Amino acid sequence: MTWPTIPKDNATRSAANLTDAVRAQFNWEDARDMLDGLPNGGLNIAHEALDRHVTAGHGDQVAIRWISKDGDRQDLTYAGLCADAARFANVLSEHGLKPGARVYSLLGRVPELYAAALGTLKAGMTFTPLFAAFGPEPIKSRMEIGEGNVLVTTESLYRKKVAGWRNDIGSLKLVLILSDGPMPENCVALRPAMDAAEDRFETAQTKDDDIALIHFTSGTTGKPKGAVHVHGAVVAHAATGRFALDLKPGDIYWCTADPGWVTGTSYGIIAPLVNRVTMIVDEAEFDLDRWYGILQDEAVQVWYTAPTAIRMLMRAGKDAAKPYDFSNLRFLASVGEPLNPEGVVWSRDVFGKPFHDNWWQTETGGIMIANTPEMDIQPGSMGKPLPGIEAGIVNTENGAVRECKPGEIGELALRPGWPSMMRAYLNEQARYDKCFVGGWYLSGDLAMRDKDGYFWFVGRADDLIKSSGHLIGPFEVESALIEHDAIAEAAVIGLPDETAGEVVTAYVALNPGFEPSEALERDIRGLARKRLGAAVAPREIIFRKQLPKTRSGKIMRRLLKARELGLPEGDISTLEADEK
Amino acid sequence: MTDADIRKAFLEELTQVAPDIEPDDVGDDDHLQDDLELDSMDFLNLVTALHQRLGVDIPESEYPKIATLALAVVYLKGRIS
C-alpha cells in the first residue's frame, strides 16, 4: 500500500534550523563558521565540544544528565565534563602516551566513557569505542587490527572478555579499570588516577586531517575494517546535528544509541555537545515505561533512536503511551535501518510528531540523507540528501558508472569530499580503493530515487546483515562457528524479523561422526554466544548435509537466503555443489 | 505448579534462548540483561518461550517483573494461579 504524505505546516518550516534559504546558500566553507577552531589555528573535536562553550560562559550548563540503572541522576556541566576530559588526557600523558596513540573503550554508558572519549581527542590520540556486549573475539580482533595501546573498561568486562588474551596484544600498554573493587593484575584504577590528575590540559594542536576516531565496521569477507575519521569531521557533526536533528543550543536531547557504535559517538557525544545541548544518557537497556518516563520527566525535545526500539514500543500498543505527556518533544529522528512507514505514522499518533528517518553509515561519519524538519515526509523514505551532500543511484558495469533514472534501483552513491568521510580503512588500502569508482563513493546499499528526489532503501548489495540496527559481517560469525568441532562449514545470513529487521541465522554442515540434534544446536549457539556476544551470534542453527558452493568453493549465501524466502534464485551458473 | 517447577521451567527456557549460560551459574538475583548479558531480542524470545510453555502472556510493561530468576518465579506463580 502507499502511505499518504505527512505535510509540514508553515510554523514548523520556519522554526526549523534548515530552511529553504539556508539550504540554498549552504557550502562546507561557511559551515566552518559554526566552529571556533583552536586559538592558534587547527581544529580539535574536544575543543569544539567542550572548551569553547566554557570559554564563552556556558560552563554551568548541563552537558550530560546521566541516569543510572537504579534511576539516580547525575548532572555533569560543560565545565565539569571539560575538567574530566582534561583529567583523562593527563592520565594518558602521565603514562607516557603520545599523540597518535590508540585508546579503546569497552564500557557501558557511564560518565567516564564520555570523559575518556573527549579526553583522548583532547590529547590528540585516537579514540575507538567498542560495544560492551561484544564477546571476547570481536573485541580481540578489533584490538589487534587497530594495534590498540590503551583499553578503558570495567573490572567485570575485563575479567570476562579481555584477561584471557590480553598478553597476546603486544601494542597494549595500559589498561584502565573502572571499579570500586580489587584491581586485576597489571591494570590501573581509573577513578583514583583521574582524581589525582590536573583538571587542565592544553588541547593538542590537531589539524583537519589528523586522525581522531577509528570505528570498526563489518566486511562481507575478511576481518572487520577500521574506518578512519579525522578531526575535520567535526564540521559535518556540527552541521548535520543542526540540520538533520534540528539541535538548538540548550535543547534537551536524547540519543539512545550506544557509543560502542558510530551513531552513539557521532550523535551521542560529538554533534550534540558541539551544538551545546543537554544530553540525556541512560545507562539501562530498553524498557518500555522507563523510556516513556524519561521522555516525559526529562522533558526531552529532540529524540534520536532506532527502528528496533520503535517497533518494541509499537508492540506494547498505543495505550501503554497514554499515561505520559510528550508535549515537550519537538523533533524525532530514527536511524540504523529503514523505519517502516507504519512506525512513522504510529509515532505521529502517539507522540504527536512523526519520526524522521535518516541514512548514513560508519564510512560516512555523519548523516547524509535525511527527512529534515522542514520537509514533508514520505513514510518509508530515508528523505533527501542534506545540503553539501550529492547523492546518486548508480549502476556499475565493467568499471563504468552510470546514473540510474528515477524509479530505477541501483547502488546508493555519494560524491566524495564531505568533511566526515572516512579517510582510510586501517592498513587496507585495496579495500578502501574499492569503495570509490568513477568519482563516486559506493555505499553497498541498494536504493531508488523517486521523481520528487526522495530516496528509498531497497536492500544490501552484499551479504552484510542488519540486526537491531547493527551491521554484522557473516564472515566473522562463520569463522567462530567453524571453530566448533562438529562444524565442517558454515554460511550465515540474515532472515527477516518483525522487530530486529533481520536475525542472524547459520546454516552448517557437520563433520563426519556428528549428527544433527537439539543438544548440538544448543551447544553450537552457546559457543557462538560465548565468543561473539549475543548481538552478533546466530539465533538459529540450521543443519544441512552440504551447503551450496560455487566452482571456486565459495559458499553461496545469497542462494540460501533466496530459497529460505522463496525468492528467485538468480544466476546460479557458477553453482557446483548444491545444497543437501 | 510449585516454585521449584516454575524455577526449572524458567531456567530451561532461559538456557534454550541463551545456551552460553549454565543453569547452575544463574544466581537468584542475577539481572538477565546486566549480569547474564541477554540482549533485547533474547528477552523477547524468552517471553515468547515462557508463553508457550506456561501459557502466561507477559505484557511489555511487566518485563521488569521477570528481570531476575527470583522475581520471575514470584511473578509467574502469581500469573499461573
TrEMBL record, chain A:
Residues 476-554 form the AMP-binding enzyme C-terminal domain. GO terms for cellular component: cytosol. The keyword rRNA-binding does not apply. Residues 55-426 form the AMP-dependent synthetase/ligase domain. Signal peptide: none annotated. Keywords: Acetylation, ATP-binding, Ligase, Nucleotide-binding. The keyword Acetylation applies. It comes from the Bacteria. It is an enzyme of class 6 (ligase). Its EC number is 6.2.1.1. One of its GO terms (molecular function) is ATP binding. Pfam families: AMP-binding, AMP-binding_C. GO terms for biological process: acetyl-CoA biosynthetic process. InterPro entries: AMP-bd_C (IPR025110), AMP-bd_C_sf (IPR045851), AMP-binding_CS (IPR020845), AMP-dep_synth/lig_dom (IPR000873), ANL_N_sf (IPR042099). PANTHER family: ACETYL-COENZYME A SYNTHETASE, ACETYL-COENZYME A SYNTHETASE 1. This is acetate--CoA ligase. It comes from Actibacterium lipolyticum. The lineage of its organism: Bacteria, Pseudomonadati, Pseudomonadota, Alphaproteobacteria, Rhodobacterales.
UniProtKB/TrEMBL annotation, chain B:
It holds the Pfam family PP-binding. It comes from the Bacteria. Residues 1-80 form the Carrier domain. InterPro entries: ACP-like_sf (IPR036736), PP-bd_ACP (IPR009081). Signal peptide: none annotated. Coiled coil: none annotated. This is Acyl carrier protein.
